[in-house]
Amino acid sequence: MIGFGIYFYGNTQGNQKQIPIEKEVHGVAIKIYPDDYSTNGDLVSFEGQIVSDSQKIRGFYNCKTQAEPNRIKRNQQTQIINADVKIQMIKPPTNENEFNYQSFMHTKSIYNGLTVIKVNSKLSNQVTFSIETVLNKLHEIRAQLKSYFSSLSNPLDKFLNALIIGDKTQDFNQDLESVRQLGLIHLFCLSGLHVYYFVMLIGTLGNWLFIPRETMNKIVLLLLPCYLVIAGESSSLRRAIFMCMVQIICELMSKPVQGIIIWCLALLIGLLIEPQLLLTFGGQLSYLMSLLLIFMENKGNFESGVWLNLFSLPFVLFNVYQWNVLAIVLSVFIIPVFEFLILPIVICGGIIGHHFQNITELINNLLNLFINLCEKLANLPLNITFGKPGLIACVCLLICSLACFLRQVSIKRWVVLFTLYMCLFLWIHFPMRHEVVFFDIGQGDSTLVREPFNQKITLIDTGGKVHFKMDDWRTRKEYQTSGEKIIANYLLSQGISHLDYLYLTHQDADHIGNFPSILKKISVDKVVVPLGMEQLPQFVKKIKSTHAPKKLIPMTDAGEKLDSGLTVLHPFVAGAGKNEDSLVLFGKIGGFKYLITGDLDQAGEKKVIQKYPDLQVSILKTGHHGSKTATNPLFVEQLKPKLAIISAGKNNRYGHPHQETLETLKKYRVPFVSTAERGMISIRKFQNNKEKIEVFNNEKS
């Protein structure tokens, strides 16, 4: 009850700090620790604190010169800068099951983001000795370690940063994607194992120096908070350190306390510092796993591993949507390897550094062997795409798992648990509704069409980023495309790992740019393109760089009839995959008829209605993101749509949708919704034959 009270109080206080409307503020003093910077091309990201009100913020700065990113990387001092900034609350997600970056930042007590427009000056950070100066020094030590580790060879550098100071970079996450797929990424979360090594090291040092145990306990009690800061202050590390500190305090007071009491006190301390602690995946797993270990002290490693996997499974499915069959076995056998081999050799590699290159090379070979082994295991067809169970379903799964744990010989309880998982699997994988989803993919296009029971699943375009020419030093590395973060993530949450059809309307990057990255996670049977596009060298290269689909089908309106539920109305002849060659697709969902026109221009729209004079639709997806080059008045007049959907990016550089398009829609009394304002838009038809249009952001009228 106290914990929930802390959460609601912290959440209320945080919401009051949010700044809903972007505003420009001059002369803001911001304190930034040197280990809180990261650079990507010309973009500098950081977490800092506004000095005037101690508010934590997430900030960004676009470097003006080539020297700036390197200078910021080399900085190892805590700084206070005076800057002109734009500040606004961190944006929530705009698509269903998209990663909620806003909630993630809230768990770190960060409610607003800012963009630095201009740095006016750097202020002095000289203060008298206090907790603040100690914190500054600890962060500076962490920055120095980060710089030192990064100077070592790969992959030792990434392992050291992740395991010693808790700095898991995007490169590290990309390299160890296979570890995540196997459900072993928790090994790289600083937690009890690392605290155990730290305390053991201090204890061994005390024994060598003949320091009394009581004195060493007091020293450890002082050093643990320092280690917490240097190691990155993750939720799992906090939990381990708080439990260790509570246990030492009780020992110093000569008051033995049960493990469950220590766990509860650690949780309360964690909630006081981080009110939304239990809303994070890491926080949930860390506290759940440690609680289970308290109750399984007398069980063997394999049995404990099975139970830990069983209890963690609802959390894994709710957050990741997939589960690897090897997870149970690997968690039992890989953990000892990790504990007695990987972690010790990484620490050894960090100590010897550049001094013994032969040993460092051997360590790198062993780490590469571990990575390669994980990749081979992850590539085995043992990954189950379950989908995302609802919150209530997850609670029911946990209750049933607990019932089985309390009475393990009860066959009925195991049958109930298995049946519940099977029912959820079938419910997710065989939905009874027909659905058309227009993703908010930014300045791009992507639409999903699903028939009832997933009989046919079709994706139309993939969205993508248009890259403009710039200096090499300004180029930013894209670790995850919007196709992976939004489209693939949504598909996996719905239990979909396979597409029957992928229609690519034309060659523009904002329509097909995410094609290769989506195919890394989602398999495709057939890819349909406008006739002529399949011969373009750039497109052929893109196809070869992906997990190739089984069949590539070039189409015109006179081409073969496919069983996708969509009818191709354009192009009429072969082209070069340009805007004027765009596929035009006609489909039905219940009583709704809809039309998707890619980036077809007004001249092409006129040709379509000339060839199909009786064509009418309920929903029109306006061409070219609402540009004035599309949505011809005669086209709208004939189609007589009841609703127009515009897919465009918020505050895009092109000014889409153009006023001319909106005036045309207004003239013919066609209401419209835009993904830029309303986020993901869904049309769903249920078994009762009722159609329903839903928008993800329902705040606007």
TrEMBL record:
Kindly list the residue ranges recorded as spanning the membrane.
Answer: 184-210, 219-237, 257-273, 302-321, 328-352, 386-406, 413-430
Q: Which InterPro entries match?
A: ComA-like_MBL, ComEC_N, Competence_ComEC/Rec2, Competence_DNA_uptake, Metallo-B-lactamas, RibonucZ/Hydroxyglut_hydro
SUPFAM superfamilies with a match to the protein in the record: Metallo-hydrolase/oxidoreductase
The answer, when asked if Aminoacyl-tRNA synthetase is one of the entry's keywords, is: no
Keyword match Transmembrane helix = yes
* Annotated PANTHER family: BETA-LACTAMASE DOMAIN PROTEIN (PTHR30619:SF7), DNA INTERNALIZATION/COMPETENCE PROTEIN COMEC/REC2 (PTHR30619)
Q: What's the name of the protein? A: Competence protein ComEC
Print the organism lineage. Answer: Bacteria, Bacillati, Bacillota, Bacilli, Lactobacillales
